[in-house]
Design brief:
heterodimer; A: 492 residues; alpha/beta; Cytochrome Bc1 Complex, Chain A, domain 1; 3 domains; six-stranded mixed beta sheet; globular; B: alpha+beta; 11 strands; 16% strand
Amino acid sequence: MKNTLVGRYSLAAVLMFVFASSFAFGQAADWRQIPIPPLPAFQPVEPKRIELPNGMVIFLQEDHELPLIDGFARIRGGSREEPGAKTGLVDVYGEVWRTGGIKTQTGDQLDDFLEAHAAKVETGGGLDSTSIGLSCLKADFEDVFKVFLDLLRNPEFRPDKLEIAQKGMSDAISRRNDDINEIVGRESAKLGYGTQSPYARVAEYATVAAITRQDLINWHHDHVYPNNIILGLSGDFDPAAMEAKLRQAFGSWAKGPAFKKEEVPISPAKPGYYLVKKEDVNQSAIRMVELGTTRKNGDYYGIQTFNEAFGGGFASRLFSVIRSRLGLAYAVGGGVGTGWDHPGITRLGVGTKSQSTVESIQALYQQIDDLQPHPLTDEEIRRAKDSILNSFIFNFDTPEKVLREKMAYEFYGYPLDFLERYRAGIEKVTNEEVARIPAKYLHKNKMAVLVVGNDTEFDKPLSILGPVTPIDITIPAPPGEGEAKPAKPSNH
Amino acid sequence: MKVPKTPCILALFIVCTLATAQDIASFEKRITVKKLDNGLTVIILERPEAPVFSFYTHVDAGSVQDPLGETGLAHMMEHMAFKGTDRIGTKNYAAEKVALEKVETAYAAYNTERHKRVGGDEQKVKDLEKPWQDAIQEAQQYVIPNQFGEIIEKNGGEGLNAFTDDDETGYHYSMPANRFELWAYLESERFLHPVMREFYKERNVVIEERRMRVDSNPLGRLLEQFTSEAFAAHPYHRPTVGWVSDLNTFSATDAEDFFRQYYVPSNMVLAVVGDIKAAEAVPIIEKYFGRLPSKPKPLEITTAEPPQNSVREVVLHDPSQPVYLEGYHRPDYMSKDDAVYDAIADVMSNGRTSRLYRSLVRDKKIAAASGGFSGLPGNKYPHLFAFYGVPLPGHTPQEMADGIHQEIERLKTQDVSDDELEMVKTRAKASLLRSLADNQGLAMHLGIEMVRYGDWRELFYEVDRIDKVTKADIRRVANQTFVPINRTVGIIETNKPAASPGGAQ
């Protein structure tokens, strides 16, 4: 692979050109005078896509730079499909799948074996999928792959590890109100999608306690079958030999039912002001949210360009005004949200001292309002597009990134050349299309505005902006315990 | 440059154990080290995997170098390095320069008056604040905000960022390979002609950063007090972000003084990794970075932390959930035992086979997490080896302390097993290998090795040093280090506020 890479570009000529021209200019007085030669053509190595007769999709990405092999399988179905009364199930499953071991070996024995080889096989649970990954020296691949296979086919979900996972979840629940930025992330998602929406709901002591070993076994049984799996391997291997090995390993695995994507309820909160009181802080975490859209939306390229110019990098309006000109915040940004297969959350966010809370909300409003009399200029749009297009190479400058992109397209049903389409889409998007984005997707009057902070120190009462709904984030007590769960640790 | 301390035979060992394409010999072929006439050390690694490159500019000054009464200044300077130059970020530099001088004059008058101990006059302070604010307004009209970052972004810069810690300040991003000369211009200009524009607004941004990371974050609150307690003499006791009163006092003039003293080529290292040819890159780097004026390397700080000889403890009664932390003084990274500490950290806390995980999380089921690590708050100077425990609901910081001490005692009195020691060594090699396929990571690593050892090969020798660690080393170092009078404890005890967090309905 390395040879093919070397053959594809001619860096020497490029840099000699730079070199020569810079001497022609003498000391470059201005960055605009520095020549930018075209970037040498670069075709990343594409992974090979294989579809087994049982429906399993495999991508093989050769990369011989280091004697390592990495693998990652993504399995359809995630926490948005778990029952609400067992919220946290997929998180717990993602942990115990690995720690609970396989039929013939405990998780601890797997740990000992893998760590002795500096290898990893890890599992995890996510919103729309679960995953299992491996990473090892090429020389250890046989043995490590065996563990990987065994975990896919014969996990044991031993109860002692379920208990550890549940304790860990309970600990995270007990700590979830400690940090305003964690609170604002969680509560703003609830405002955007609805408190009970699978896209926003959170595990509670009771829902975690309700999870049984049988739930984990059932989840595995219901989801882990070949036509529900996308597997990607990258690293130092011979693709033909690897393909043969994988066909042998997975070929006889019987196909399961086709995965049915369920309708996931979304019910955004009413627009208005929401307050979470937190007395031990001197900064307010602020989010303004409304429901966004998906990447399949024809406006996607306009949205991405708009986001870059409005709330993206250093030169964006939000950064330049709220941070640099007004000095109101260290962290500020935002944009229209775009999900892969469900609407993202459109979100503007800022962290500002308690005494400039209302001022900062008004400053964000001002930036939205200002888009009317002062829409993004041609120059701002040009800059945003340049930024996306000139950094485009960083979407595929490593074989690993190329593999992950392809796997994502496969998973969400996007064309495998989506990245190329994206480039073309950004190139083609017109200023008029970009200019239409804010009116269509950024609505002051549709936003729920959440403030997490110490309201006794705000510059003005939040209520001068409109009616304020307090949000009670008190953590519901574990089953069988009293009304108010003591946050204090009991003494032993 | 220093001669490598490790004998060549170890280098050979590495050659055998690592992949052929990524051994020290392969690096030798692809690395160029060049010291420019002005004293700037440049290291280039050719890695032509894709037409991109990453760089890392290391300035060997961190918050340890903050002058007395000006904590946070090194970090402030890092923010200012994004504000542009006399050509970038200005509509009219000649006029802006005059306006910025007026800001400084007005600020000095205001600052003197408001800090008067005797005879201070509040009205006078207000009267002096206004001309300062007016001068800021006047200077603002010349500013093109964030033009420096904008040029980088629209040219495809990726991961544009910087950091400051106790030991150093670092700048980094990646770029498409065809922007190499543009990058050389931008990165050299930022340190050749920095302009302290929008200083007092950026100071407010930094104070917001402090509120976010420290004041409004329980762990930030704990760490600041813990570190202040652990160090009495050494500047490690001061927070990198700075005390609020210092942040509200220091001036753009102070930042410029700091810049002139520490941002000098002899105190900086530049590392570039990616799709570049050294033969072509070096002349460009010489052309642009060679313009930085040569100055002597600033003096090292000499204050040494005296032996602790006391038990120290900070307990925060805080609304957040409990946390336990303890730290022990250890020597700096140049210590012959540095690798022994690495081995101890690995045995104690790397993954689910680690002793602290197995004892506190798996067996006793009292902690959600527990581990140990070096480098608090930095590692250039003698610092702390710290242990932490995160108690599960219903368990206490004291149980964390007891559980950790039990494992420390084991480390002191019994040898680690053959398997454990082997695991440490295998993992060290694999972890080096895994770090070699990332331009940005490599640039930072190579740059740091050049600064800290004067030799990039230390990237590989570090693994050799771990390979030589013995069971006896681990016991010896544990016995030397982990003793009560060398310990500082930091605890968050949960102190539930009177009102419920949800507040009144």
